[in-house]
Amino acid sequence: MIAPEKEEEAGCKDETMSPDVPGQTSASIVLSPEELDRLSSERPLVSDFKRMKLEKEAQKNWDLFYKRNTTNFFKDRHWTTREFEELRACRKFESQRLVLLEAGCGVGNCIFPLLEDDLNIFVYACDFSPRAVEFVKKNPLYCPERCCAFQCDLTKDDLRENVPEGSVDVVTLIFVLSAIHPEKMKLALQNISRVLKPEGIVLFRDYGLYDHAMLRFKACSKLRENFYVRQDGTRSYFFSKEILAELFEEAGFQPVANDYVLRETVNKKEGLCVPRVFLQSKFNKTSQLQSS
Ligand SMILES: C[S@@+](CC[C@H](N)C(=O)[O-])C[C@H]1O[C@@H](n2cnc3c(N)ncnc32)[C@H](O)[C@@H]1O
Q: Where is the Methyltransferase type domain (predicted)?
């Protein structure tokens, strides 16, 4: 069954894609003519009815995902502090208490390593799935003095109900925007912008265009361009850096960094080492707080 991808490293270092490599234009990796042909000729086969049902049941499908997998699916993301050194760098003075929002926190694989590593941080963590939020709250490392977890649909519930307006230094969006319908991604970013400080930043990591996970989807799973449904009903979008930059700019952010990261991950079950494409980016808030 195709499930959200685990990121199990094969001991390879991230390799950031240079835009100047011959044959690599805006795309993340070079595909064979056959692969390009297949992708461009594939038309979405999913009916409108099924597409609407998937959107309506998106929350339920993620909640069922956590019912089946509990806290065992994703690995703790220790790379958060290793790779996003901005977390340290964005302090104006050494003893500053950073306020972070992990938007779409799942069961907390990002936040708990961070809370252990950095004692001077307060983390808001929200997720679509009530079950995931319960797992976060039950984690032995969860304590209300340093953490506040709550259930929320980033595309429609105003984050200001739980997080004071303009109070957050850093938002992390890790493999979350890809799970949101492309037409609602901007709403999620605008929502996030309202709780960010004027000079706040968003740290983003997600699936890149032509990632292995995208190439193994069959035509019957295609919902629209670069957007697919897994067998469990959860969905995934694959970002080009141009589309991502445009999306953030429309929501009032400007790119500071925005690059593909190539790495190999091990699928232990299938005994395969596969090439992965992720997009890792950093955006600054540019617009004034929006009151709506
Ligand atoms: C692949 S998981 C990533 C979890 C976590 N960020 C991590 O890195 O382990 C994607 C998460 O996004 C959440 N999600 C999907 N759509 C959402 C929405 N509209 N609002 C809030 N969370 C959402 C899902 O419930 C799921 O927990």
A: 101-201
* Pairing status of strand 253-267 against strand 196-207: unpaired
**Is 62 close to ligand 1, i.e. is its CB under 6 Å away?**
yes
Q: What is the rounded distance in angstroms from the CA atom of residue 22 to the CA atom of residue 32?
A: 15
- CA of residue 204 to ligand 1 center, whole Å: 13
CA 130 to chain centre: 18
Q: Report yes or no: 279 and 259 within 8 Å, Cβ to Cβ.
A: yes
User: 């890792």: which residue's tokens?
Assistant: 280
Are the beta carbons of 126 and 188 closer than 8 angstroms?
no
Residues 92, 98, 99, 103, CA torsion sign: positive
Residue of 1, 2, 3, 7 lying closest to 208 (CA atoms)? 7
Q: Which domains does the chain have, with CATH numbers?
A: 3-285 (3.40.50.150)
For residue 159, the 8-state DSSP code is: G
Per-residue pLDDT tens listing for the chain (292 residues):
344 555 433 333 344 433 333 334 345 677 888 888 888 777 777 888 999 999 999 999 999 999 998 777 666 666 555 555 667 777 878 888 999 999 999 999 989 988 888 778 999 999 999 999 999 999 999 999 999 999 999 999 999 999 999 999 999 999 999 999 999 999 999 999 999 999 899 999 999 999 999 998 988 899 999 999 999 999 999 999 999 999 999 999 999 999 999 988 777 777 788 889 999 999 999 855 444 4
